[in-house]
Design a protein that fits this description.
This is Protein SirB1 N-terminal domain-containing protein. With 282 residues, the protein is α+β, with helices and mostly antiparallel strands. Helix content is 59%, strand content 9%. The longest helix is centred in the first third of the chain and has 21 residues, at 45-65.
């Protein structure tokens, strides 16, 4: 299903569109800042980059003098928490600002994935080969070393864990076995990181019934996952709930033509509502 970019800022988002085209070597920080524009009109890209570049400049010499991988991680975590004030709290999960990287840099308050993205950017700029790890209960970053993997929990003020400690943490948070946790301890690519960021926002805005914001997020998810029936269905429904009734009628009709039986009544109800509302908006 095609999507018209005429009313979407997505087409102006260079790094996000590179993900849509499945290109590699995407600037993940810029893609995250582009997503931040959905909820803010004045995202200052140079200011955000300036904060991170100063971090790189301040850490370059100490990191080059570090005697071990662990010491490098400790230097990075200390700067992130003490100088930038990055930290997480459970209450931040429900605050959209904690999902947007520029706001996290401004306030220090973030969720696991937004905090981890900042660690990733600075660490990789310093030559520390950090990897994004997307577990069910907590987004983490990992550093492969000759002695085994080290993990950083950016949400817990940059706490550094070995693999056993990491497995225990995720097992407790997600109520799953060590074997199940190990299946998720694999690096993910930039595309998977952005999809998880968007799914977090979708759940947040949907829970608030902020349909306009949820629709913007869903538009991006549909572009990234055009073969997903769930995202196609949700795009049609959220287009209607956001008040774009003309477009929603077209999307809902197309979805009904191919939908599984269990979704038919749900979509028919939304199509009837969109048709009823459209004349009131003309």
């Amino acid at each position: 299903m095609s999507f018209s970019f005429s009313n979407s800022a997505c087409s102006d988002d260079e790094q996000f569109m590179r993900l849509v085209r499945r290109e590699t070597d995407v600037d993940l920080l810029t893609a995250a800042l582009e997503i931040s524009r959905d909820g803010q009109s004045d995202v200052n890209f140079p200011a955000a980059r300036g904060i991170l570049q100063r971090a790189v400049s301040r850490l370059t010499h100490p990191v080059t003098q570090a005697g071990s991988d662990l010491e490098e991680l400790k230097l990075l975590s200390r700067y992130m928490t003490e100088e930038l004030g990055l930290h997480g709290e459970s209450e931040y999960l429900a605050d959209p600002h904690s999902h947007y990287v520029n706001q996290v840099l401004a306030t220090g308050r973030g969720i696991p994935i937004s905090l981890s993205l900042i660690y990733l950017h600075v660490g990789n700029e310093l030559g520390i080969p950090l990897e994004p790890i997307s577990t069910p209960a907590r987004f983490l970053i990992r550093l492969p070393t000759d002695q085994g993997h080290l993990y950083v929990d950016a949400f817990d003020r940059g706490r550094i864990l070995d693999e056993c400690e990491c497995i225990d943490l995720i097992g407790d948070l997600a109520s799953c076995s060590a074997l199940e946790v190990r299946r998720h301890l694999r690096p993910v690519d930039e595309r998977a990181v952005v999809i998880r960021m968007l799914q977090n926002l979708k759940a947040l805005f949907g829970g608030r019934e902020d349909w306009s914001s949820a629709w913007k997020v869903q538009t991006r998810l549909q572009l990234l996952l055009p073969g997903s029936w769930r995202e196609r269905r949700d795009h049609a429904v959220l287009t209607m709930r956001a008040g774009h009734y003309g477009e929603a009628i077209d999307l809902l009709e197309r979805s009904l033509a191919v939908c599984p039986a269990e979704d038919r009544l749900f979509l028919q109800n939304h199509l009837r509502q969109a048709r009823r509302m459209l004349p009131e908006c003309n």
